[in-house]
Write a structure and sequence with these properties.
A: Serine Threonine Protein Phosphatase 5, Tetratricopeptide repeat, two-stranded antiparallel sheet, 38% helix, B: mainly beta, 22-stranded antiparallel beta barrel, SusD_RagB_dom (chain A)
Amino acid sequence: MKANLYKILMFSALLVGASSCEDFLEEENKVGQTDDYLYKTTTGLDGLVASCYAYTRTWYGKEAGLGLSEMGSDLFYSGFDNKQKTLNSYGLTAESLDGNASDNPCLDQYWEAYFAAVNVCNTALEYIPQNTLLSDAKKSQYMGEAHFLRAFYYWHMVNIWGPVPYYTSSVQSVSTDATRDTEEFVYSNILADLDAAAIELKESTKKSSRVHYWAVRAFKARVLLYAASWLGPNSITTNSSYAGKNLYEQAQIESKAVIDSDIASFYDNYSDVWTMTNEDVVTNKESIWGVNYSSNFTLNVLPYRIKINSNGDPLDFVNLISRTGRSTGGGNAMLLMFVPKWNNAGKDLSDVFVRVTSLTQTIKNSVTNAVVSPGSTYSRYGRGFTRYVPTLYLVNLFNQVKGIDQRYDVTIRDVYTIAPGLEGSSKFYPLMQDTALYFMAVDGNSVEAKAQMAHAKNRYRIHTLTGGSLPLYTSSDPALALPTSSMPTEDPYGDKRYKDVAYAGNQSFISIKKFETDVYSRSNNDKVTPEIYDRDVMVLRLSEMYLIKAEAELATGGDALATLNVLRDKRAIAGKDNKLVGPVTLSTILDERALELCGEQQRWFDLKRTKTLVSRVKAYNAQASAKIQDFHMYRPIPQAQMDAVTNKSTVAGQGFWQNDQY
Amino acid sequence: MRQLIKQCFAVLGFMMFGVLAMAQQTQTVKGKVLDATGAPIPGANVMIQGTTTGTITDMDGNYVLEVPDAQNAVLVFSFIGFQNQTVPVSNKTTINSVLKDDTIGLDEVVAIGYGVVKKRDLTGAVSSVKSDDITKTASSNAMSSMQARVPGIDIQQASGEAGSKLNINLRGNRSISASNDPLILVDGVEYGSTLDLNPSDIESMEVLKDASSTAIYGTKGANGVIIITTKRGKAGKTVVTVNSYLSSNQPTHVPQVMYGLTEVNRRINAERYKRDAILVKAGTGNWGDTKFDAVPVTDVLGGSAVNNLPYSEMDIYNEGSYTNWADQILQNGLTQNYEVSVSGGSESTNFNLSVGAMFEEGLLRNDKLDRYNVKSNIDHKMGKAFKVGTSLLYTYKSHDKRTNVFGQALKMTSIAHPYDESGNIILKPSPTYEAHANPLLDEVDGNFQHNVETPRFFGNGYLEIIPVKNLFFKSMIALDRMEMRDGLYQDFQSVGKLQAATGSYISVENQTQTKYTWENTLNYTTDLGTINHSLTGLLGHSMIQDVLESRTISGNTAAEHFYESSFYDLNNIKTPVLDKEYVKKSMLSYFMRLNYKFMDKYLLTASLRADGSSVLAKGKKWGYFPSVAAAWRVNEESFLTDIVWLDNLKLRTSWGISGNAAVNPYETVTTLSDFPVYYNLDGVEYAGKIPSKYGNDQLTWEKTSSLNFGLDFGVWSNRLSGSVDVYFSNTYDLLYYKSIPASQTYPQILDNIGETKASGVEIALNTLILNNTDFKWDINWSASFSQDEITKLSGGLTKNINGTIGQVVGEPVNIYYNYEADGCWGIGEFDTYKAAWLERHPGETMAMTGDPGTIKIIDANDNGKIDDDDKKVYNRSPKAVVGMNNTFTYKNLSLSVLVYARLGGYIAYDFNGLVTYDSSNWGDVDYWTPENQGAKFPTPGVNTNWSTYGGAALYEDASYLKVKDITLAYNLPQSLISKVGIGRVKVYGSVKNYFTFSNIDNYDPERGGAITFPLAKQLVCGINVEF
């Protein structure tokens, strides 16, 4: 029995002893890289600094960022297929709509994106000084870029949501409490970051899409103006460099410095600002700094969201932000947003007037039997996404300068032509020569319109501003006007050629054309009418510096009119005088900003910071006027954030509170 | 396995310790214990009746025993799985015993963790399905045979795609983010839930449900354990069996979208609404004024051809030539299954060899799964103390897959044609929505090629040693090597790529997974020297290492047809994207168990397992999982022995802790994003990686402690038998992605955030209603009722919501959290509502709107505003799952009817979301018009509120009752077939999934809300032959 016991013990010992090597339970991480490994390499750090920039592409040139900065303002109605109509109707809620792409302000995704961006900047600011291989100059440059970009992201956040949590270091451990820092505090830190960036980047200039010294100064001018108008001229207290100073004066100094530098200069032809030849923000003369889009679309993809699905996989940004998504690459989508359904010409023009989908597509002239390749003619019109319809106010503003100011012809598309070679071959318009669609900025019942209509029979189709057969707007009063939305009831020619709901003003309209492309996409599939393109986005332009300077001068008693007229002069059609005459008011400046910067992702912020949002919307945007109230000057904090904080409160200024009325 | 465990069997009844037989002449008796096939039984008990003296047979079934009083002594031969045999010694010196199989009733053997036990000695809650029932199910996955047969298990097939996965859930939900899938073992080694075995190779499937049974599996046991044992050979005659069936699969319960005039009317009703809205706004009319006939069809349908199409909408309207796209893409599939096995052996060597081939076709063209199996089980004895053996399975699968084109087919307007007059496919057939690709594009030869090839070797070898009497040592090494090649070619003219217009697309993934298991167990059995005791001890250790590597190359090509080179020619990719994966997991475990039995009435089991894992952070790596269980065989008590109608009565209770190993590798370290993000600076495309996954080094296992009470009974000669189990479980350290304010970059982090509890009742009932010589009718019932609840979330949160799913304390684990809709606002209804509200809330302002015909969301807290507090909890889990299996046997003919019901629970029915407002087709839903104001769905005229609140209309009660299977089988008479040397022939035919009753029209709720691949109904005919 004893022998047996020994055997039992021996086998038991064998079992236990067989495997007691602790190494067996060590974790091996071979492909999921960690920060302290990667960012200590120069390659990793180069990439990290590049990643700081990547988040600029979530906002600029993207549908959702465009909506949040232009809709609900005085400039645009939402068109037929707008995917963010609640931004215009001010039916905005805190709800986090995640992947919903049918009506989504995307505020939750920007909240995530910007805080992720700030974390990347903070990570860079922590790792750059640790690197021992980079030159001091390079380190200095990297530090300057990270400081600038952190300020840049926070500027968006504080303008969208007001008080937001401000972080100066990367997230190492998480907590469920969050603190909203005051707007003054956030602005103070933005200014501090910009001053730090200016020191680090002292020697740099515009030679790549990197941030440089003058970009920092230009952006600082904007930040100062925003702080001055929104928080008050002497509002900064936390940042001792600005405490007690008049921020308008500071803004004027900064903008003047940028103007006086040789970082940017005006083109004689305003159209040169927008031609695809000059799309590169580095080579465009009027550009100071902007967001780069590569012609290799697969490399324009955004980072994944850090938010994950229930399987733990990272989510993609909704396609209003990512546009075509990760599998097909990313790009600038501005070419789609303002385009009406010009090609959806229904029963009259469809035989000669279609969007061409490939380089080889041809249309046959049914009269001469000539085969015409219309791609080069049509490609600039792009796909009719019908997202944005200019308000009657904006159209009127441009009409006032038509013929004297270059900006009308460069900004406004009111004529669509057919491809040369198709003349006379349209079934319903046998007399058609070049023009196919014409948008007349007059009342349809006017004598002029009636005469044009009579002439247009069998030649082309005419839409008029109001009244008549195909009115664009329901009223001539900018406070009441809406884009028309139903099928025309009047049929002037009696042959149903005007009967299509696609001719209503929310689908066929006067459009903004400066974002059009006149070159075939440089993507790998050579599409004639692409969904994205590689146009860089000018974030800081020379003309804005004049507008900032003028506004600062208006507030501090300077000669705003003279400053504005420098810009007006540059934009005048040769030989014409488009100078403004006084007195200059805030309204003058906002009108000028509309002419110069419409669609450039600042309008809503301009109205907000000047506290003219509610009054201007009520005066000029009937889609938005019914519901808008003062509280709308802040956007709601996303519900997902509210649900996650454990120090939620209902009192502003205490704990983590939701913006009023949301 | 059975040779591992020894059980003591002795005479039942009272024994007086003081009374001993007089000393008599002692004689040596020897002999051999065999089973019915002539194979020796090692480890069988040989006892002298009425004493504690006895022995156990050796590896060859031989025994030698000194018998006092050889004249009168009686030997009792016993072994689990066999009936006891008593033989008077009568001075004989050689007594051989042939034990009869005992596979029914209480002496049935069931597999438990690392061993087997007689059902009568079970202390835990274990259910079992035997081979007869398994081969009855014509399915590629033998697991589906458990549906409706095992109480407590909820098996759902969510898709009709060939080879689709089953959702298996045991005793409700415990985990939120972690899997609720049970651990599935084949011959002791973890396999995964898609069983690629021939059903006829399976001997039995055991379901271990309570914690005392599963705790021996430690971190892998919390969701229950299913032990699958494959058939092994027996000595004796070589038996050849052939199993084959054919199944015709037809689509059933296909959701219907609007077709023809229904769709045209929707367009008219949309236009009516818009025109009414203008009139009402202008104050010149009322809702319903623009009558149906006042909106001519020519005002809503296009009269001339657009988008280069060969037809206009009016052409189709006039001809009535609409298209039903779902009909166009669905086909009938055929499944063929062939299995042949040969089994036999000699005294020293047994084998079971089988081959199988299965060809399954889904309901879409080119949705095909081919599977080939080779299996070999061999056991060989070497001398008295050694035995070796292997179980080897090689499976090859080739799966031609389809992606879901149902979505495309459902949203495509019926006012369109798939082909032009010459029969050429139209790329974009919709006159109203140019972006909609023809759903038939993927059926154009070559346009869509997706093949997944998976060879898998799954095998083990073992060595058994009996170094001393009653001590069994076993060492097993298993290797599981799976390879996978997933190749995809999508032509630029395929459904998925046409609209993106980025060229054709190629992706190839190669993956290997290699898993080693080394397991050693030691079993010792003793009776502690007296008849009344029986003690079995198990000590074990296992090491598992699992390495997964994968590489993927993908990217777009030029917009050309690469039909021939398909996904093979990677050079066609313009800018290849590379992806890779390397995941390594290791686990080290020690476990022990004691089974103690006293007087054959009182049973006690205790076990403990320690698991160490590589995926947890240092200091957190080890977890410990104890369990205890007791049972009392009440009917063995003297006060019940007189009750003749009571055959069995046993009470069981158990408690234990088991875990859920849901932490994935590398969760405890912060890692950077998998994919780089690029930005162009200085003309260089810099690739950067950002911190994207927060590593939580505090993570630990989820643990479930559960308490089980069970009752087994059998009465009237077991005409009525069954069991009832009641359980209560608490799961804590629950893993979930805890919401963090997104302002801290990481919106969710994985954490052990909460606790859940679950409870339920399970009833299994076997009623033999008729038992005549010719006619037999029995019904097996199974029923389970379960509920679960979140009891705690971390940080004092009462809610953790992510979109429409999440957790709410006090509510079930698996929920939807969303608004509740009450149809649509009627004409004037909102004004009345608002007036009443203002009266209730004087001085307040109302923030709701309610245009007629738009969705009416219930303002649950009556604050005049639709906000988060108005959301409701929709429980997704069923309240009850009931199965009833009728078997009628008349002579050689048998009919079985399997009825299954799943009651309660909501699904989010995707079909209800097919209300789109963007020129896509709608589901054929009941929508609002002035004449139909009670409709559930809103007017097609305006989409106010729908995109925000439409989710509230998704939820449907998912209860259903299904006649799962009706099978008629006929055993050919022996007289007929024995002449030609055949042992048994059974032919059968089944109809499956033909009758389903639910609240949802044209839908089978078993699919869980998805409207992708519909389920098939099957017509099966098959044959089993045994030579």
